[in-house]
Amino acid sequence: MSVKAKFVCTNVNKQKWGKQDEGSTTVVLKAVTSDSEENKKFWQYTPSGHLEMTIKNEAAEKYFELGEEYYLTFEKADV
């Protein structure tokens, strides 16, 4: 089983940690609001949510764009 949610990127913050470190990017995503029919359905079941990630992978850093919407799929990890 998995759980799917829809979030929007509300903040992208690139940071440098000294001269030799390439730095990282912090992205913040929040649950979508009801501005489309699909978002209204997601909002009904997830009216609030917040995800913040610090990323040190150039391809992943470029993937997240301010204002874009993303699906999040949660699955239990095999331990």
TrEMBL record:
Organism of provenance: Bacillus oleivorans
Full protein name: Uncharacterized protein
Source species taxonomy: Bacteria, Bacillati, Bacillota, Bacilli, Bacillales
